[in-house]
Amino acid sequence: MTITNSMQVVGKVNFNFIKLEVSNHVATLTLNRPEVLNALNRLMVDEIDAAVDMIARNKDIRVVVLTGAGKHFAAGADVNDMVQMVPEEARNFAFGSTFNKLEQLPQPVIAAVKGYALGAGFEIALAADIRLAGNSARFGLPEINLGIMPGAGGTQRLPRLIGSAQAKELIFLGHHIDASTALKLGLVNRIVADDELLDEAYIMAEKIAIKPPLALQMAKRTVNIGLNLDIKSGTELETISWADLFATEDQKEGMKAFLEKRKPNFSGR
Q: Is 143 designated active site?
């Protein structure tokens, strides 16, 4: 699927620093400050927060694609806003609560990353469920070079993905890694040519969007919660979540379609 004029802005909110569009049950959230490599400032993150709330409420949206306008995903937080901050101002500026909200969306989120994904730009990509990298993608947490440390989930999500030793190397050294290194570390699911990246993200999104929405949401929730549980508690949660899906119309439709050798038509009920 390619972006076309048929895509519509969701709701009545006029955004200045992001775009939110939806088509065929797929929402596209685009970071849209290409003149500053999509650097995130407080106003932009507030818009992301509002967009995430809109997506969470919209049952027609089944998958989200997160990307950046222009040649880059997001080159971190806007340092101009932070130079003279004191701790209380920094806490109010921090993006972590919004990135947590993005991670907790019921819908699966696919980040399509090309160019720079640095600092907060890397951290918002870490909050996605799946990451696709263009061959130009560069990932890094350079905060240490500014006299600070990652503050929007980098010290928490990165070790969970690649292990503490590899994460500490990236955090302590503050250097960039390319797409192939990110793939080897398990940071990204696959590498795609830059000019095919969004198409690949939409192909994956559309494949996910035809799956039963309630089962998708339950699976995502179970994985995310289970990561912080011991195996016994996690498998107990899984059993309860699995059994609860037998109360849905989609479970009946999916199993009947299988027995009748036809494609299922999932309604999200």
A: yes
